[in-house]
Amino acid sequence: MSGKIICVYDGACPLCTHAAVTYKRATLEGDVELVNSRTQPDHPVHKRIIAKGINLDDGGVFLKDGEMFGGVTAMEKLAKTRYKKWTQAGLFLRLFGHGRVARVTYPILKGIRDIWITCSGAGKINPHWPKQNN
Question: What is the pTM of this model?
Answer without folding.
Answer: 0.88
